[in-house]
Amino acid sequence: MLQKKLITTSKKVKKNIEDKKYRIAKKIITRIVRFIIPQLIIFHNCLEVTSLKSNPSQDLDSNFRRFDN
């Protein structure tokens, strides 16, 4: 009976460790999604703006005109 209790206790401990790993991984993923991805979007938009400023002939209207011809 004592051995059976120890086995069930060890199973519970293993399950708790797996749950903690899952929760930690979930926290890391949500932080990546909430912080890093918006920063990448902002950085990408800044690159687009600077490229348009450095090369004003390539604005969106001229690109559309080129495809219309």
Provide an overview of this structure:
- The structure is a single chain.
- By secondary structure, the chain is mostly helical.
- Helix content is 90%, strand content 0%.
- The chain has two helices and no strands.
- It has helices at residues 2-54, 60-68.
Secondary structure topology:
Layout: H1 2-54, H2 60-68
Distance between the termini: 85 Å
Mean pLDDT: 74
Radius of gyration: 27 Å
Helix content: over 70%
Shape: rod-shaped
Low-confidence stretches: none
Sheet-strand content, in percent, reads under 5%
The tally of helices reads: 2
Order of helices and strands: HH
Main sheet characteristics: none
- Helix-strand category: mainly alpha
The total strand number stands at: 0
Task: Supply database-style keywords.
mainly alpha, 2 helices, 90% helix, 69 residues
Write a concise synopsis of the structure shown:
The protein is built from two helices and no strands. It is mainly α and 69 residues long.
